[in-house]
Amino acid sequence: MTEQEKKNWSNTNSLKLFVSKEHFHHHAFEIINTYQNLKIEFLNSLTNEIRVSTRIKKTIGIESKAIEAKELNIVIREELKKIKNVEIKFEVYEENGVFYFSSEKSSIGGFDFAILNHYNNILTLRNLCFGNLQYSDGEIRWEKFLKQNPDLTKIANKLKKIDEKGKNISNNEINKPSPLIVGEIQFGNWALAYRDFFKVLKADVQNAVDCLIYIVPTGNLESMLSDGIVTFDKTKKIMDDFSKVISVPVWLIGIDVK
């Protein structure tokens, strides 16, 4: 890079984000297209002018344009939070079939975001706290969850059913079911892709996850981040190589900038 190119790049504070590639694994296409509004909202949120923190990276002595992955991750979360017609929870952690969010659980080992069926989720928590094999501190866990999520109190009060303590309640929801979708925004080391797939397979055992939305870099963006990271092509290869093992549907989204 010339000194002028470096100066121009250092003065750049925004780029156009867009979806460059998509891949649907294991019936993900049918599932995502069943929820057209969700698909449109996601694609729109990833098609915007975004702020970036630029830097110059050097690979084998060659300088090139680069951007900060941490800042990019934050910005994409901000864009997803602007979605109004789809309720998205962030920093979601699954334990014994229950998804916790807000400050209820640490995000370490969790998902970046999720679209949850709150009725089913609270029902699972209720059965763990007050059902057949209940937590010894079930009341404390229950109250702590509701303190962090007061908007779910109405559903929780309906399900608690104090007079039926010691007995699991079956799912008798008659409303149109909501999908259970978990998501990751991954710009880290390529090996993290394997961890992410193991994580979603674990969550799927007790919850029947409808789909994993996996957002990764490709094209120009891929070259602007660190070497050896998770990319669209590497992730697609993992899914192809382990197609019979990765039983959860995956909507793989490759994002780029210009």
Describe the structure.
The chain is built from ten helices and ten strands. It is of the alpha+beta class. The chain has two domains: 15-47 and 59-116 and 178-258, 3-Layer(aba) Sandwich (Restriction Endonuclease); 118-176, no CATH class. The strands form two sheets. The protein has an eight-stranded mixed β-sheet, with helices on both faces. A two-stranded antiparallel ribbon has the order 3-4. α5 crosses α7 (153-160). The longest helix has 16 residues, at 192-207. The model has no long low-confidence stretch (mean pLDDT 89).
* CATH structural architecture of the largest domain: 3-Layer(aba) Sandwich
Could you give the order of the helices and strands? HEHHEEEHEEEHHHEHEHHE
- Low-confidence runs of at least 5 consecutive residues: none
Q: Would you tell me which CATH topology of the largest domain applies?
A: Restriction Endonuclease
Helix content: 25-40%
Number of strands: 10
Query: How many whole angstroms does the radius of gyration measure?
Result: 21 Å
Overall pLDDT metric: 89
SS class: alpha+beta
**Major sheet: arrangement of strands:** 2-1-10-9-8-7-5-6
Helical segment tally?
10
Largest sheet at a glance?
8 strands, mixed
Oligomeric description of these chains: single chain
Shape: elongated
Fraction of residues in β-strands = 15-25%
Q: What's the number of structural domains?
A: 2
Which CATH first-tier class of the largest domain would you pick?
A: Alpha Beta
End-to-end span in angstroms?
18 Å
